[in-house]
Design goal:
The complex is a heterodimer of chains A (115) and B (108). By secondary structure, chain A is mostly beta strands. Chain A has no helices and eleven strands. In chain A, strands 2, 4, 5, 6, 9, 10 and 11 form a seven-stranded mixed beta sheet that branches. A four-stranded antiparallel beta sheet of chain A has the order 1-3-8-7, with no helix packed on it. Chain A starts with a strand and ends with a strand. Chain B has 108 residues and is an all-beta fold. In chain B, the strands form three sheets. In chain B, strands 2, 5, 6, 9, 10 and 11 form a six-stranded mixed beta sheet that branches. Chain B has a three-stranded antiparallel beta sheet with strand order 3-8-7, with no helix packed on it. Classes of the chains: A mainly beta (115), B mainly beta (108).
Chain lengths: 115, 108
């Protein structure tokens, strides 16, 4: 059984640029959630996708968007990057369709630095 | 609003000493509480959840609704327990809300 994988492991961008982060769900999981973890903070929920549809969103602006593909892999896109977007971005997958019922399995994260 | 508070950023204990990592939450309904752990160079993983009422790696946590707490305890700390610990809450269809975490350092 393959766990959650994320790419890239880290990257550096400048303000105003756009970035795409990728996540492959654990085998058999059809739900993926994205979290932002700023330095010294706990993970903060960005949004969740189930079967290619967004079905939950945290308090993040529209420039944070996502996609889920038929194979249940996912992308997180951030436009017009700001310095405060510098963080570790975590992807988590779960087998069910409801955030409230399933254990989430986390990937190793992508560390983004915005200069 | 849901909130999870972990008052200690860092907790250092000696090997063999008891450990208690504090977690308080604010939510008026019936929340589900979790402890997640992140060992050095490893990914975030679920340690235990209150509905399971289980002991994992010697750790237990009891949900105290009166005090709105979910403290994590272990009677005898081991060096391999050194890690970052996060308390988290969710209720109904809401996503996980995490605390800021406590770094546990077990000194040999």
């Amino acid at each position: 059984e393959t766990g959650v994988t994320q790419s890239p492991t880290h990257l550096i961008k400048t303000r105003g640029q756009q970035v795409t982060l990728r996540c492959s769900s654990q085998s058999g999981h059809n739900t993926v959630s994205w979290y932002q973890q700023a330095l010294g903070q706990g993970p903060q929920f960005i949004f969740q996708y189930y079967r290619e549809e967004e079905n939950g969103r945290g308090n993040f602006p529209p420039r944070f968007s996502g996609l889920q593909f038929p194979n249940y892999s996912s992308e997180l896109n951030v436009n017009a990057l700001e310095l405060d977007d510098s963080a570790l971005y975590l992807c988590a997958s779960s087998p069910g369709d409801r955030v409230s019922r399933e254990t989430q399995y986390f990937g190793p994260g992508t560390r983004l630095l915005v200069l | 609003a849901q909130r999870v508070t972990q008052p200690e950023k860092l907790l250092s204990v000696f090997k063999g000493a008891p450990v208690e990592l504090k977690c308080n939450y604010s939510y008026s309904g019936s929340p589900e509480l979790f402890w997640y752990v992140q060992y050095s160079r490893q990914r975030l993983q679920l340690l235990l959840r209150h509905i399971s009422r289980e002991s994992i790696k010697g750790f237990t946590a009891d949900l105290n609704k009166g005090e709105t707490s979910f403290h994590l305890k272990k009677p005898f700390a081991q060096e391999e327990d050194s890690a970052m610990y996060y308390c988290a809450l969710r209720s109904g269809n809401t996503p996980l809300v995490f605390g800021k975490g406590t770094r546990l350092s077990v000194i040999a």
